[in-house]
Each structure stands twice: as structure tokens, then as C-alpha cells.
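Help needed: design a sequence for this.
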């Protein structure tokens, strides 16, 4: 069973009973108080094996990098180069599940 519409940072107490054709069983209180909090998940990148290799691009050509991301709350994504800033012409797109860079 799933309880919906619980408010974050609120405390709840629950009780349970069994029900069947013979009737309703005795109620039992669930021990303790349940505090509703957002589940935290550390940020993580899922780099494809191809992205771990050296990538060659022709002069004047374009490069598109697509990287799935995970984490809760949704991580902030920052693209950078080892030797400096990414040029202004770069297009960066990020959602809650992926980030992409087009140069």
C-alpha cells in the first residue's frame, strides 16, 4: 500500500489492521513517528565508454557530448575545459536526467 499526498517535513503516525470476509482485525499502532523528507541521492554521471577515449573532430566541425546524470535534488551541471573556459558559441542543455554540450 502506498500513502499519497504526504507533506514534506511533517510528522505522521500510522496504524494498521487486517480486513477480510470474516471482518476487521484488531488495530495496531506502528511504533514511532514517520518524518517525511526528500530522499537525497549523490550526483552521478554515466559516461559512455566512447567518451572516455580520445575524440577527434575536424577543424570547423561540431562536437556533441551527451551525458546522463542522476541525483536528488537535481544536480547543477557545470561544463568546463582543463585549459580554460568553453567558448560562448557552445550550446549547453541540461534537464533532470541528462546534459549535453554542442561545440
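Sure. Designed sequence:
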Amino acid at each position: 500500500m502506498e500513502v499519497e499526498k504526504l507533506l514534506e517535513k511533517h510528522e505522521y503516525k500510522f496504524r494498521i489492521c487486517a480486513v477480510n470476509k470474516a471482518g476487521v482485525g484488531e488495530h495496531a499502532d506502528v511504533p514511532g513517528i514517520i518524518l517525511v523528507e526528500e530522499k537525497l541521492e549523490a550526483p552521478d554521471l554515466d559516461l559512455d565508454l566512447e567518451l572516455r577515449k580520445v575524440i577527434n573532430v575536424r577543424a570547423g566541425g561540431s562536437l556533441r557530448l551527451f551525458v546522463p546524470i542522476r541525483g536528488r535534488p537535481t544536480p547543477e551541471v557545470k561544463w568546463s575545459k582543463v585549459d580554460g573556459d568553453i567558448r560562448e558559441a557552445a550550446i549547453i542543455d541540461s534537464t533532470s536526467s541528462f546534459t549535453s554540450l554542442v561545440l
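The radius of gyration is 24 Å.
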